[in-house]
């Protein structure tokens, strides 16, 4: 019975020691944590200062970048203005060089004209001698020259330093007709090219009555169908390398004059046939070889021709 109090006393002492050790350990841990916090606190101001410094540097860079762009823009503007000045200077120099006397027009060549004279074409062109060759505008010159209805196509070439070349293609003047003591000249479509007091280098059509003639308009003939027949005969003659000085319509008969004293005579259809077949060309060539310039080549059916001397 005396041993129980002693055991209980030991247990109590053991429990008290355990509590004391726990309290001691807790106190030690608290001191350790406090010391660790004290060691970290000095670093915080440094970190904050570093962050503030970084922000200040960033702001400085941001603020500094804005002014740096302005000089670049000014630099670009300076280059742009310099380019404009250079271009203007080059243009001015080119203009001055182009108007030196070295480039003044000193000669105009006209090529391809037969009916229209060189002088008339040059006058129509408006090109002035002594003016700069670079002041000649080909399109404008072409337009002015085409005011003459004889001219179908025009090509104008500047030939520096001082020459201009004008190449023209005249219309085919297939026929001319009598009207009021004047000559009405037409192209292959019957369009009136000119009304002249003088006879032109075109086949004269007789035996028809002209009732109307205006430039750039189709000639008007009283006899129905004869204009088309005359133009068809002229086109066929040209295509087969033949030329008639004069064609006279006399009813159903047609007289086509090679010379004033040598003619082909027959019906319209027969004459068209011997032309397209080449028969008439052979007969005319044979007469030419024999120096025969007077007489009549009579034209019949089936491409038959018979020559009768005067």
Uncertain parts: 1-7, 62-67
Number of helices: 7
* Number of DSSP-assigned strands: 14
As a whole number of angstroms, the C-alpha radius of gyration is 56 Å
The overall pLDDT, averaged over residues, is 81
How far apart lie the N and C ends? 194 Å
Strand order of the largest sheet: 6-5-4-7-10-11-12-13-14
What kind of sheet is the major sheet? 9 strands, mixed
* Fraction in beta strands: 15-25%
What portion of residues is helical? 40-55%
SS-based structural class? alpha/beta
Give the overall shape, derived from the CA principal axes.
elongated
SSE string: HHEHHEEEEEEEEHEEEHHEE
Describe the model.
With 310 residues, the chain is an alpha/beta fold. Among the domains are: 68 residues, Ubiquitin-like (UB roll) (Roll), CATH 3.10.20.310; 52 residues, no CATH class; 71 residues, no CATH class. It is 46% helix and 23% strand. The chain is built from seven helices and 14 strands. The strands form three sheets. Strands 6-5-4-7-10-11-12-13-14 form a nine-stranded mixed β-sheet, with helices on one face. The protein has a three-stranded mixed β-sheet with strand order 1-3-2. The protein is elongated, with a radius of gyration of 56 Å.
Layout of helices and strands, plus pairs?
Layout: H1 4-40, H2 43-98, E1 107-111, H3 118-125, H4 138-145, E2 151-159, E3 163-170, E4 175-179, E5 182-186, E6 192-196, E7 203-206, E8 210-212, E9 220-221, H5 226-239, E10 246-250, E11 253-257, E12 262-267, H6 268-277, H7 279-289, E13 295-299, E14 305-308
Parallel strand pairs: 1-3, 4-7, 7-10, 12-13
Antiparallel strand pairs: 2-3, 4-5, 5-6, 8-9, 10-11, 11-12, 13-14
């Amino acid at each position: 019975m005396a041993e129980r109090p002693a055991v209980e006393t030991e247990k109590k002492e053991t429990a008290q020691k355990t509590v004391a050790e726990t309290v001691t350990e807790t106190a030690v841990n608290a001191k350790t944590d406090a010391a660790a916090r004290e060691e970290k606190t000095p670093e915080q101001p440094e970190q904050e200062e570093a962050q503030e410094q970084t922000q200040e540097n960033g702001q400085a860079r941001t603020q500094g970048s804005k002014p740096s762009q302005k000089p670049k823009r000014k630099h670009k503007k300076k280059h742009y203005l310099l380019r404009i000045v250079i271009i203007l200077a080059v243009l001015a120099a080119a203009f001055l060089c182009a108007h030196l006397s070295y480039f003044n027009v000193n000669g105009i060549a006209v090529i391809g004209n037969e009916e229209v004279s060189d002088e008339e074409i040059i006058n129509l062109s408006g090109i002035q001698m002594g003016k700069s060759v670079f002041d000649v505008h080909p399109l404008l010159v072409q337009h002015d020259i085409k005011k003459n209805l004889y001219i179908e196509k025009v090509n104008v070439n500047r030939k520096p330093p001082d020459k201009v070349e004008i190449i023209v293609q005249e219309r085919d003047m297939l026929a001319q007709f009598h009207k009021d003591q004047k000559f009405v000249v037409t192209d292959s479509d019957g369009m009136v090219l000119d009304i002249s007091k003088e006879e032109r280098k075109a086949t004269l059509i007789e035996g028809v009555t002209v009732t109307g003639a205006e430039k750039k308009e189709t000639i008007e003939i009283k006899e129905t169908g004869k204009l088309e027949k005359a133009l068809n005969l002229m086109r066929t003659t040209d295509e087969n390398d033949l030329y008639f000085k004069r064609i006279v319509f006399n009813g159903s008969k047609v007289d086509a004059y090679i010379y004033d004293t040598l003619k082909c005579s027959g019906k319209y259809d027969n004459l068209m046939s011997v032309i397209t077949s080449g028969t008439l060309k052979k007969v005319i060539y044979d007469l030419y070889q024999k120096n025969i310039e007077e007489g009549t080549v009579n034209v019949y059916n089936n491409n038959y021709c018979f020559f009768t001397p005067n």
